Amino acid sequence: MGATERRLLLEAFDSNWIAPLGPQVDAFEAECAAYLEVEDAAALSSGTAAIHLAFLLLHIGPGDRVYAPSFTFCASVNPILYVGATPILIDSDPDTWGMDPNLLAEALEQDSRRGTLPKAVLLVHIYGQASKLEEISMLCEKYGVTLIEDAAEALGTRHRGKHVGTTGYLGLFSFNGNKIITTSGGGLLVSNDKALVAQARHLASQARIPGAGYEHDALGYNYRLSNLLAAVGRGQLQGIEERVAARRANFEDYRARLGDLPGISFLQEPESDRGTHWLSVMQVQPEVFGATPEDIRLALEKENIESRPLWMPMHLQPVFREAKMLGGKVCEELFRTGLCLPSGSALRAEDRERVAAVVRSSAGLLG
Ligand SMILES: *Cc1c(COP(=O)(O)O)cnc(C)c1O
Questions:
Q1: 3-state class (DSSP) for residue 63
Q2: Are 224 and 50 spatial neighbours (Cβ–Cβ below 8 Å)?
Q3: C-beta 129 within 6 A of ligand 1
Q4: Rounded to whole angstroms, how far apart are CA atoms 296 and 362?
Q5: pTM attached to this predicted model
Q6: Which class for 16: exposed (0-12), middle (13-18), buried (19 or more C-beta within 10 A)?
Q7: Is there an atom of ligand 1 within 6 Å of 174 CB?
Q8: Cβ–ligand 1 contact at 335 (below 6 Å)
Q9: Is the CB of 128 under 6 A from ligand 1?
Q10: What Rg value do the Cα atoms of the chain yield, rounded?
Q11: Class of domain 3-239
Q12: Could you read off the pLDDT of 158-195 as tens digits, one per residue?
């Protein structure tokens, strides 16, 4: 947090607008929409709430199928179950780690023949890397399936010059404590369809009809962002480009320090993308490097340095045991070989050197 966040928060506090609405919320929404170059944005209590609302707005419910990547955080797919729909999980594509467009194409072709097309495809831009947006949006168009973009980890990521999260019918972002900018907890639903965003605000405010009375025209939710937190978000958003630059610099620096080690590799970003590297992810081939990602994680922990495994694919999770999975080898391999290195926007070169030294000294631990 910086001085701007503090000033805006105290201004909001002193204005006595302590509610899940207010001038800071309105301003934050307008500033997010302007930054993302999208028509409208609704500020919400979380990214999870944004996905839930997206499904509700599309009238997705029991009997409907939704395609989603297996390799993601559980918040992407849990709302499929909240609305009683059926998730179909899809493996990652090795170039972007996002949903594999070839597997999706096969599945949609088969669905189209059988008359079982899904209600939506949920794309996730994982770790701030753009997924194969063109291929997937063309497929969605071809079969008339709605595309939703989960850009919770990818605020600031551009694909062919355009912000991810703004190509599909609906897109969403998260301002959870661990994301590139934060309001401690919060989310954003965006669309170029203003009426849809207005409907999202309505559902997020208990579907209450404007006016003095307490009349509700639908089943609503309490999903709006607090005016205080929106003030924090406004301050954070002002620094988004510096944060993206810092995260990209983390990644480039780790790659320069470690990329030449046998068995260590980093994903190459396509030229058309400007990802955020929300987290710097390294891949370790244990058979070549001589240590597993978990060995390295423990060695770092001994030095009081936190690192994390990659997302455990959803098809390996007890809660999604019943879900259908298409493919699986790519994301299982990512889970086996990946490690998220310290990635904060405030890391210094000497911090990264400390991390790199521990990684280097872990080589050959397996003996
Ligand atoms: C963080 C995250 C979410 C959920 O956001 P919250 O604000 O924590 O509810 C959804 N999808 C992905 C991929 C995420 O990383």
A1: coil
A2: no
A3: no
A4: 6
A5: 0.97
A6: exposed
A7: yes
A8: no
A9: no
A10: 21
A11: alpha beta
A12: 999 999 999 999 999 999 999 999 999 999 999 999 99
Q: How far is the CA of 109 from the centre of ligand 1 (A)?
A: 30
Q: Give the SS3 label for residue 291.
A: coil
Q: What is the pLDDT of residues 297-346, one digit of tens each?
A: 999 999 999 999 999 999 999 999 999 999 999 999 999 999 999 999 99
Instruction: Work out which ligand 1 atom sits closest to the CA atom of 185.
Output: 7
| Integer CA distances (angstroms), 205 to 197, 209, 228, 310, 344, in order | 12, 9, 17, 35, 34
The upper half-sphere exposure of residue 337, i.e. CA atoms within 13 Å in the direction of its Cβ, equals: 20
Which tokens belong to 330? 């790519």
* Alpha-helix runs per DSSP H in the chain: 3-15, 23-36, 47-57, 74-82, 101-114, 133-143, 194-204, 227-238, 240-258, 286-289, 293-302, 329-337, 349-362
Say yes or no: CB of residue 131 within 6 Å of ligand 1. Answer: no
Ligand 1: atom nearest CA of 179 is 1
- Helix, strand, coil percent values for the chain (each to nearest 5): 45, 15, 40
Atom number in ligand 1 closest to CA 76: 11
The residue written with tokens 């904060």 in the block is 344
Structure tokens at 231: 């003030």
Ranges of CATH 3.90.1150.10 domains, the chain? 241-361
DSSP letter at 298 equals H
Could you tell me the two tokens for 288? Answer: 């070549």
d(CA 223, CA 108): 33
Residue nearest to ligand 1 atom 8, measured at CA: 176
134 and 104 Cβ atoms separated by less than 8 Å: no
**What is the fold, at CATH topology level, of the domain defined by 241-361?**
Aspartate Aminotransferase, domain 1 (3.90.1150)
Distance CA 147, CA 139 (A): 10
Angstrom distance (rounded) from CA 129 to CA 158: 9
Closest CA to 281 of 259, 305, 299: 259
Please, where in the chain does CATH 3.40.640.10 lie? 3-239
